[in-house]
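Risk register update: the risk that structure generation would not scale has been downgraded. Supporting records follow, first protein first.
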Amino acid sequence: MLPTIPRACPAARHALSRPLRACAALLRRFGRDESGSMIIFSMFLILMMLIVGGVAVDVMRAEAHRQRLQTLVDRAVLAAADLNQELDPEAVVRDYFTRADLLDELEDVTVSDAFNERQVSIVARTRVPATLTRLVGIDEFTMPALATATESVTDLEILLVLDVSGSMGDDNKLEDLKDAAQVFVDSIFDSDTEGKVSIGMVPFNGQVNLGQAFFEQYNTHDYGGVADNYCIDLPQAAYDNLDLSTDLPMPATGFYDSYSGPNSTANSYDNPAYNRPRSDYGYYVNSWCPPMDQNTVLVPSGDRAELLAAIEGLHAIGATSINAGMRWGMELIDPGSAGMLTELNGGPLNGQSRPLPYEQENAGKIIVLMTDGEHFPEERLNDGYRAGPSPIYLASDGHYSIYHPGIDGGFNFWVPHKDYWMREPWQGSNPGWRDRSSTPGGREYDAGRMTRDGSGLPEAVGRAERQDWQEIWQDLRVQYVAWQFYARPFGSGSSGRSDIFDAQMNAVRMRTSTDDMDNQLQGLCSDAKAEGVSIYGISFMATEHGAGEIWECASSPSHFYAATGEGSAEGQDIMSVFQNIAGSINTLRLTQ
């Protein structure tokens, strides 16, 4: 039997006479040829790539379905657990799934109702048919979507720290704020069926008026005795810790106007009344602590009616000290104030002494901080000008004279409305006067001499009575006193009088720079956030710098709101902002 000849040996097939060794050589070459194995290996790799790619596509499809289902589950569980809705919670869930055409993927709904609390749990499952992964034995992907939501009124302490500076009177901003804040208060209290929420308010302008009862808890001095004038000049030490000690000595804010300029119109020398600007409320428009029963601190409580009335009574006036507002807001939320505030409230709130400890479980501390501007340099009276006797006398006819020592011939009393010197205080007549031009020149003015040398003067001379500094500031502007009683008698020319005026103003009052105020604010905000206090910041049509300070103070970018006035076509109006914050506070917590 002849051997089988491969197709590669056509010559051998037709010429058996060729030598067998030629065919053997062809056979050996055939055995060494590996090109066929590479094709097989490549086909195997392609098949594996198709299977892996198919699995990836199927997994991506399944995950997209799962994400869609999870979003639906989250929305449905939040809506069903809402204590404000009166529908059956399970019916709410089923309605959500029906509308999404996914009811067949809902497996279980569990509802647990307790007093002032509702918990809803949802189990859903999506099944996505496989395509190429069938090649490896996987016919479908089954992926679950789970969620549990609980709504309950926890122990909340909320402080509204609101700007009521003069600029809030522009463009109806204050009225818009009142409406929004009142809606906020109603929304929060409507969700509180167990009395677990307390809300307080700190209105601020250039200062914070504490109200008499709160003011009297602190170690204050130099109080001027002006009704409804209960502000405190906070020292730097008050910003160094969240707990403001009631033992820290702090001066009361004087009743004075250091902002308004001296009146230089006709008759101003003769009539100091030109320099006693009064508002409709009967006090200086630019007083640092307007003495009024509006704009006062309301300590946190559960009294909705009192809070709504206090908001309605807010009045726009004064400068802007956001740092002071935040400082007193933290004082009303700090646990160190618990004993004092419980006493001021006439007892604990729902059996609890508040403020609660920072680490209290199921409790929250929230500050809503709003401004429409930025810091304005604080001004406060220096020691020696806050209280005590001054060298200034008031005559029975309403005119003033001031004692200055070291004048030749004993003519030590300057009379501004007469523009001359006298041997005695002005008493409604002019005994012993001499013309100003005859006063010896060449003296250097000393801004401190009136307090250093003013002691020992008689309390009264004839029909003139010596005045305390507090009496002076209640009747005259600070700049008027510096100009009429110091710059004019000693200055030579307008430049000389201006230099003396500046020196005297610096002797009477000091200023806190806006940089220092910014730093004080941010230090407080950082300390508060470190203790878990949530800070919502609202820039209400504020300056760029002011908005930046509020943004930095807020707990997160999502806690910051740039608000516009009601009816504005651009941005989010103040009403919507307060509603969103109330909704955020009342929002449900996803626990699974």
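Supporting record for the second protein:
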Amino acid sequence: MPDKMAAARSAEWRSVCEKFRRAQYLTDVESKRDPENDPFRSKYKARETLKEIYSIIKSFDSEENDSEDNEAEQLGVDGEPGYRNAHPGDSPAGLRATRLGVTEYFLGVNHVETEELSAGEEHLMNCMKLLDKCLVSRENVSVFIQARNQLGILWAGRDEIEKAQGFLESAESIYIRYMKEDGQPPTDLTEFFVGEEDELSQQERTKRFEMAYTHTLYYLAQVYKNMEQYEKAGRYCHITLQRQLEFDQFVPLDWAINAATLSQYYITKSRYMEARHCLAAASVIAGLAGEVPSEAAAQESTARQEKNSAFFPGNICTFRCMFCVDFHNLRKKDNIGELDVDRQEELKRARRREEEEKEQGRKSTVLFGLSETSDSICALEEKVSCVVPLDFQEARAVFLVGQSHVAEAKEYFQMDGHVTDHIEILQDHSALFSVLSFFEEDLERRCKMHKRRVDMLEPICKDLNAQYYLLICRQLQFELAETYYEMMDLKLALANKQDELDAHTIKKFNHLCNASIKYYQTFLDSIRSPEGKFPEKLEDDVLRPALVAKFRIARLHSRHISSNVPTQLENLSRSLDCYNFVVHYCEENPEARKAVETELELSEEMVSLLPLKIDRLRNKMTSSN
């Protein structure tokens, strides 16, 4: 009789294994062929099969399982029953709860994938309750981690970020503890329903387990980002990218986009070595699309190649941002941005010492470990320095690298069909010229660099339909206004070096003033209501630009050169009106003061001084008459 019972149980177990294979096939393969009008058909079938598996396991004779469990206890490691090496197909009672938990896990994932989140949560929590009866062991550590991963994703999707954080940090601590106390390749979830002949290799077990933990880190990076813990999010994102390469589980374009995005974070923290490495790695890995023989990459379809359109603008933007950094704490400049040469030499010496020290301690922690691409990554890194440029030659070297990427992107994103992307590229190109001009000591040549910016942006701004591209039009209008404003400042500096201004210089200077005023005013007009009324309260996204535009227009009117006294009076009156606007707006909206502290202070000063100047001019005009 025992032999017959054993044979029956063996046949029953083979049936369970077959059902599980069927459920996996329906989920992973057949579901991709489901029709659009019935997208979850195969997953519903898989769900029914998983329910059958659950019922069969539940019905196993408890007394027999208790007996088997006693035998399994003897297989523990160092006398600790939580660490068993028995094959899961032997079905000891000690593993029955885990098998039920694994089935609940797959049911939970099934419900989540079919957009039944509440039912998915219920099954995943049932899985957790069943696992609470077990110690973390080589057999069940994977399901311990993956159940928490799924619950973390689920709660994050509901914007319950703290709950998501709790589950994911628990998964992280379980992994760390397991690797410290055991560290052997653990049983994969699928192995609870296979025969000995279908066991995974140790290498495959390790790969799947490590990728489950990589997913934990990836989801934690998103959680920390949502919680505005940006330093932690950046660190977890970097580790995730490293592990994806290490275990050969990445889609090249997805990986490249994430690495390029991470470089932006490093730039905001002035960590240019890390930013450069991320960008270089992103460029190299993006080039592997369709070539990397990983499981994830093998699934990459032709349609995914369109993600190039998301990657390359990020590529350019990163080069631009690496170049266009905040120099305020690194150099001294006068009111038109002159370099302090002695200060620059001092900074160079200090910079070399600092970077050498930093690189020794940081480089080994940031490198992405894919040996076959490391040479290509290093070659790209060597093309551009990761330190802030401090003279024209250093700045020009970075400029040329950035400009080469601009040229490449322009070829890819033509204006016809890629309007937004093409304009972003032009803005990046303009930004490169803007910062390079800072290092140019010759004011005339600097002015010509700004003229290049005008030449590339002005035709686009004139032709673009503001009805469809309002935000882009505003950006271009404001940038053109600022560019003309900078050119006006440079011409003023040149004029101050002359004994007497000729008519041509005056005409050119006034043209720059008027052009800047025109674009600032066009920007301000874009904020008006359809009826032409300027808003009483400015929206946050236009608050500072609008007040700065008013301030700059005020200054431009006061700088306009004319020998005609009535014209001078008219310009000063317009200037006073604009200064008054800034002051009155901040009086009525005190929260705006922080946005324009410097401009407000100068406006208040000019509001008190300009009336005196206007009165003197009027008296002069009266006396001359």
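DSSP finds 23 helices and two strands in the chain. On this basis the risk owner (M.S.) recommends closing the item.
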